Amino acid sequence: MMWSWIPSNWSEILSLTRANAFLGIVSPLIGLAISLPLGVVAARWRWFYPPTLVVVNVIYAIPSLALFIILIPAFGLTDTPVVIGLTVFSLCVILPNVVAGLRGVPASVKQSATAMGYGPLRRLLTVELPLATPVIIAGLRVGVVSSISLASVGQIIGVSSLGYLFIDGLQRSFPTEIYVGFFCVIVLALICDLILVGIRRALTPWASGRNRAVRPRPRWVLSSQPAAPGAGARP
Amino acid sequence: MLWDAFAGGAEGRWLITFEGVTKRYPDGTVAVDDLDLDVPDGKTMVLVGPSGCGKTTTLRMINRLVDPTEGRILLNGEDIRAQDPARLRRGIGYVIQQTGLFPHRTVEDNIATVPVLNGWRRAKARARARELLTTVGLDTALAKRYPHQLSGGQQQRVGVARALAADPPVLLMDEPFSAVDPVVRGQLQEQLISLQNELRKTIVLVTHDIEEAIKVGDNVALYHPHGTLAQLGPPERLLGSPADDYVAGFVGFDRGIRRLSFFRTDGLSLSAGPVLPGSATVASALKTGEPWILVVGGEADLTPRGWVSAERLAGLDGEARLADVATDSFGHTFTVGDDSLRAALDAAVLSPAGVAIGVDGEGRVVGIATFDQLRAAVQAAQAAQDALDAKDILNEQGAQLRQRPGAIR
After folding, report:
1. Does B25 lie in the same domain as B173?
2. Structural domain contains residue B99
3. Residue range B244-289, pLDDT digits in tens
4. CA distance B14 to chain A (A)
5. Contact across the interface for B117 and A206, Cβ inside 8 Å
6. Alpha helices in A45-174, H assignment, sequence order
7. B103/A206 CB distance under 8 A
């Protein structure tokens, strides 16, 4: 470990971290934006979900590098293939949580909302989605963390990320660079995860104390998601 | 607003009318079969029956959570299918067993739901919510809590407050008290009765519990297992003149005793009885020759202290005062006029002396009733009620429900 390498390359480490953060955050957000309408449809028309889940799982099985390469002819050696790839992967993680979150809204709550005079759209926006938020954010957390870690693979097709430090360190047989890259990815993922936890707390004040003490549902949903294996499991 | 039209409803008319209503599901199950039912304005109609009898389907057809296959339902004379469902529902309060409270909203915002849907400003709606918390007997300090921080009984009260928030003329209640323990259930039932005495809503309440039906209902519709009515009438008529063996079996073997809840004690003759003040001596008590003496506070204080037997007094010093003698508990008393014959009979059964103590509104002893006196009153009341029921059944064939007071409690 050569500590002096860090200050002398500080600005490059920072810009690589920034690039990695961009890829790792924007992609799951786009994934969320696509998952929400899909999830609403899947929660409402049950027949729609099983085939969607099959497609999503097949896509999730594609190695990330292969997916990036397939997308190069269409989008060139830009950020786009990586963003699209990461979006698709995080979609695979987030969509099941959107569906689980919406299906987890108690039938009695939905029924009484209707009986009090909510229209379908209003009920969705002001009752069902807020109640599904903890589960959706649990999915988003996995999506963000895994995208941050996967973004480094994009370096292989020349898209700037912390992956540069791994490849360069390997080629030069310079472990310090690899350790720094490793550390930055972990810290970045942890910070983003903490921010998401903060957002969840702010959005769902009603759930605090309740998730831990009374209903550990978000954690349960997270750990039993068929399409959400642990982050970073991808080669 | 939609329900402004309901204001000042004339006494004795129907607010909700089912005309030949059938609900058949796609798999062929008939939940409700050709139902005709009139729900009188400002009264509590209880739908009761075994599970799967169609009582809940009947209820849900009123606010269009379920649409009938055949027939029509009129609310205030208008076919409900001609109305926008969301607007129709905002004029109908809805309370369910699982409460259906919104877990993500505070108690006050839960209660304010319908006013906010109707376009009230949030501050005004919340003020209304706090008012309703008091109405249903909850502390306004609970306003900022979330539903999961409340007990089951409190949640159910919030559910009732939420249903009442926009002051709808109609309240639908689906097994509202089934999920709470018996003590809380009793309290909630009492609360519903006193709220209803004040608010005079048209309530349709579904339950599988015949006791609850008899307790809270002005009228009871008892269902057969497959979506038809077995009997419709005031609870005392179901108890006194069950239409058939099915009804008799459903209301239970002690229906005779329960029916006494509907008979007042004004007709009951009372004896002055062996009542002595605490200042009287043991000797004067023995001189009455009565086996049991009721001891009261004093010459001016007529509140009962307890029973004492002549047997026990015989072994005591004749000059001792009754106030210093150990007495047996008198169980409970009944308030003459206000309480039912059932309460009076119960008081007699529980009393060591076998007689019921009648008191006035202030708890002062008015007189005592023996089993013989009670029997005479029960027979007279039953004969009068049977004559009334027979006349009703003949005249109206159960279609017209007379306006009459509910059970006396």
Report:
1. yes
2. no
3. 999 998 888 678 888 888 888 888 888 887 888 988 888 888 888 8
4. 22
5. no
6. 49-61, 64-75, 80-103, 107-115, 120-123, 129-150, 163-171
7. yes
